[in-house]
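The protein record filed here.
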Amino acid sequence: MNLLLEKVYKKEILDRESCDLILSIMLQCQTGEGRIKGELPPGTPVAHKTGTIAGTVNDVGIITLPEGLGHVSLTVFTKGFEDETEYVEKIIAEIARLVYDFFFFAGDVPQITGDVPPSTTLH
């Protein structure tokens, strides 16, 4: 999944317009506010897509780091959590914050390179 996110970001899997549309839609995702975005600093851009069905609580996305440090793709898939969605969302949020803090404070982010149109607000 992370490879797919990278290929969409780099415009390597579909034409540029289709990749731009995918990223734009993912940036506007309104579900799963307590997942990847849940513990990140307010206003952190996250292009993500959630999934929830029968004990499966997932979120995948591209987190934009501050200060021009780049982007980090993150995939968290879970299963076997019947009636524990809020608990799993909290775990996903904590994982995302750990990843964010690691790359923000380490300042050593492997760069995903590629042109991003202004409409997506990924910097």
About this structure: The mean pLDDT is 88. Strands lie at 46-53, 56-64, 71-76.
